[in-house]
Specification:
alpha/beta, 2 domains, three-stranded parallel β-sheet, 8 helices
Length: 200
């Protein structure tokens, strides 16, 4: 359920045109909730993008819809660091609540050090960070990382794990009936009990 309020919700689709169409189709369901359409690329590229999202696959094929949800998972749905690590960072930065949100996936620090990377992270910074011993890299939000998929995969292969201080919350997946019926094929990509809204 999504409650009316002032917090903006991002309607995220593979393209900006599809995001606008989806936002129009969801207007009745989201009445009273301010929302804005974004392509996934635009969403990740905007530092001020809302943290709550409704995901809207294109609906052209089930394989394409699942691929979109997988891309969102890999690129935007990153977990938070352990509560102890989060609280330590919050104490240093001063603008975060020292108590982390109670829900959401965690990325465990393990025995090695964690690296906090403020601001944008491009390939030059990432490559320099690889020379250090930390393989848990913590950024403010997933959109802070401006690396293409190939280089993200290269870093993953090198043992890099990402964590975020401001995680994305999936409000719902909005898709056609075919996607809803195929939930067993993609439910592992998103948080448990993510609602599915059926739209034309």
């Amino acid at each position: 359920m999504i409650l009316p309020g002032k917090t903006v919700v991002a309607v995220v689709a593979p393209t900006q045109a599809l995001a606008r169409t989806s936002a129009a189709l969801l207007a009745v369901r989201m009445r009273g909730v301010p929302h804005r359409p974004f392509s996934l690329a635009a969403y990740l590229g905007r530092a001020s993008a809302p943290s709550r999202v409704v995901l809207c696959p294109a609906g052209r094929s089930l394989a394409g819809d699942v691929a979109f949800l997988r891309e969102v998972r890999d690129r935007a749905l990153w977990g938070m660091p352990d509560p102890i690590v989060y609280s330590a960072i919050a104490g240093l930065l001063g603008y975060l609540s020292e108590d982390p949100p109670p829900r959401g996936p965690r990325v465990r620090a393990g025995r090695g050090p964690a690296l906090l990377m403020e601001g944008a992270v491009g390939w030059k910074r990432a490559k320099a960070a690889l020379s250090g011993s930390s393989r848990l890299w913590i950024v403010e939000r997933a959109g802070s990382v401006t690396l293409p998929a190939g280089r993200l995969e290269r870093l993953r292969a090198g043992g890099v794990r990402w964590a975020v201080l401001e995680p994305v919350t999936v409000v719902a997946v909005a898709g056609n009936r075919r996607l809803a019926r195929a939930r067993p094929r993609w439910k592992h990509l998103l948080p448990a009990r993510t609602p599915v809204w059926v739209i034309p």
